Amino acid sequence: MLAFLLRRLLQAVIVMVVVAFIAFLLFQYVGDPVVFLLGQDARPEQIRQMRADLGLDQPFFVQFWHFLVNAAQGEFGLSLRQGAKVSRLIGERFPATLELSLVAAVLALVMGIPMGVYAALRRNSALSHLFMVISLLGVSLPTFLIGILLILVFAVILGWFPSFGRGETVQLGWWTTGLLSRDGWMHIVLPSVTLAIFQLTLIMRLVRAEMLEVLRTDYIKFARARGLPERTVHFGHALKNTLVPVMTITGLQLGGLIAFAIITETVFQWPGMGLLFIQAVTFADIPIMAAYLCLIALIFVVINLVVDLLYLAVDPRLRLSSAKGL
């Protein structure tokens, strides 16, 4: 167990170093930060002095080492557009993105797993066919179109929910949340549903396919031959083994929700990291782009590590393999 954890941690460190190197290359080959800070009319002596102040006159690998040390401390310098510390800008936007992603993930799980189980157990029913049609639409339609349609129907025509913004938020120390106010919940409904639809349909189809596969295995036939109730067979044996691959997809999709909430945040003007990243790309704000890249990579690495540990908890065969060093 300890050896397995150490191997995974070493792999995580290597991945983060590689991602940090790619982020560092943005500073080297995407524009010149000195020109952004001083403008096109700066004198040569001003440019030389600024490059020395920023450490840009040092060798390549010395610069990368300094970048790596600062990144490990969460420091990426100043935003070229806003003039504020990148860490502060990210810290202000991260709660909104995490809140939106978690609500979308809960919606996808709470609805996707039961729908997938029903579609597998009652695959010839009309409701099961309806679920499959909905899943096909959810996978096929682009996220921005789903968001626009939801705004048109539920915000413009029906007027049930607001169409943009985060609504009223509550300050909890340095953290802000809209989940403690009714206005915050009203604002998060449409963007969270938009973000959850693709994940929901993906989870539903995966659960259905895995459930049908598990129900054909020998140990399920043996459980039925022993006279166990169908409810026990379906939920005590089949569903438990179905959820092992679902954990992988769910873990990766949670990282994907955070990373790729850009479109949803743009459509609904949700004040999260995705909207900040789009604005940074528009103005070539390299420090924010580099920080976003490193943060998303860290989220994926942590989620993968947690999923691996959950595998060990769920599947005894993996514990045995890791104990043998396989």
Topology:
Layout: H1 2-29, H2 33-38, H3 44-53, H4 60-72, H5 86-121, H6 126-140, H7 143-157, E1 170-172, E2 175-177, H8 182-215, H9 218-225, H10 230-259, H11 262-267, H12 273-282, H13 286-314, H14 316-324
Antiparallel strand pairs: 1-2
Helix pairs in contact: 1-4, 1-13, 5-6, 5-8, 5-10, 5-13, 6-8, 7-8, 8-10, 10-13, 12-13, 13-14
- The shape is globular
The biggest beta sheet reads:
2 strands, antiparallel
Rg, alpha carbons = 24 Å
What is the overall pLDDT average? 79
Please provide the count of β strands: 2
Secondary-structure element sequence?
Answer: HHHHHHHEEHHHHHHH
Molecular structure report:
Among the domains are: 2-72, no CATH class; 102-144 and 194-283, no CATH class. A two-stranded antiparallel ribbon has the order 1-2. The radius of gyration is 24 Å and the shape is globular. It has helices spanning 2-29, 33-38, 44-53, 60-72, 86-121, 126-140, 143-157, 182-215, 218-225, 230-259, 262-267, 273-282, 286-314, 316-324, and strands spanning 170-172, 175-177. It is 76% helix and 2% strand.
